[in-house]
């Protein structure tokens, strides 16, 4: 109780505000990765702005209402949402040092993410086959750039995931592997946030 | 004796494992996100909302869902560990808003001032 009079005593209140000594590595790593994700959001904001501006410039070509199949979009959304859920449960299993459950949940994440990509690529292929490729109109250029960039991110996320699963198998759930897993979870959940913007702005507003 | 926690010192690189979430919080997040998604799809396909207000309704639902994702999946909370992340997020939101709203505003203005070139 005498120590309480010293003013350099770290307090719970001072944590995260520079007091109480250096933050744990896990917090610092997550913060750095969060900054990267925010810069990714800024990248997407440019593509969203381009799409929003160009969405009515169809140059006499097909409009969104003619091209979009909301049933497929709903299935895509659910794939991504459930993959976010299994990814979260995988992260939880990793935190609790259960590598078997971690691998099980993340195989599901992988399957759901791949299902999303397959549905999206068949949608793209169908549009190109109908003559509604990215070169048809400014609207379609904006559409393929925005949705395609998200798809590329999902592909990158799946490669990241396979790499992380290999690390867990080879190295086990060591602290530095856990920190990389934390970054992967942040990345995967962030992709789902971008997708909320995509299905709202592109598909739901475009299909009206 | 509660003060004992105050003297718990940390060294850089030392991991402290505090449970950030549990199955229940992820499941609650999933349930809320599915609910908001379904409402979004229903609202866009029916006349449940006053039709000219549908885009605004969809934007509100999207923001609500993004909030659910941030809190339940990304664990952005009110705790001290989240302070820096929330400040960075606030700046990110500002930049995203400026880019999107600014582009729409400027291009709409240009369109308005453009001569009609159609024959």
Topology diagram in text:
The complex is a heterodimer of chains A (208) and B (119).
Chain A: H1 25-54, H2 64-67, H3 70-95, H4 99-129, H5 138-171, H6 175-206
Helix pairs in contact in A: 1-5, 1-6, 3-4, 3-6, 4-5, 5-6
Chain B: H1 23-45, H2 54-73, H3 83-113
What keyword list fits this structure?
heterodimer, A: 208 residues, mainly alpha, Four Helix Bundle (Hemerythrin (Met), subunit A), 6 helices, disordered N terminus, B: 119 residues, 2 domains, 3 helices
Instruction: Give the N-to-C terminal Cα separation of chain A.
Output: 67 Å
Oligomer: heterodimer
User: Topology as H/E string of chain A?
Assistant: HHHHHH
Number of domains of chain A: 1
Order of helices and strands of chain B: HHH
Name of the CATH homologous superfamily of chain A: Cytochrome c oxidase, subunit III, four-helix bundle
CATH class of chain A: Mainly Alpha
Total count of strands of chain B: 0
Which structural class do you get from the secondary structure elements of chain A? mainly alpha
Strand content of chain B: under 5%
Measured between the Cα atoms of the first and last residue of chain B, the distance is 85 Å
What are the segments of chain B in which pLDDT stays under 50 over at least 5 consecutive residues? 1-15
CATH architecture of chain A: Up-down Bundle
Radius of gyration of chain A, in Å, reads 21 Å
Rg of Cα set of chain B: 22 Å
Given as residue ranges, the uncertain stretches of chain A (5+ residues, pLDDT < 50) are 1-7
Rough outline of chain B: flat
Which pair has the most extensive contact? A-B, 62 and 60 residues
Q: Helicity level of chain A, as a percent range?
A: over 70%
Looking at the structure, what is the overall shape of chain A? Answer: elongated
Q: Main β-sheet of chain A, in a few words?
A: none
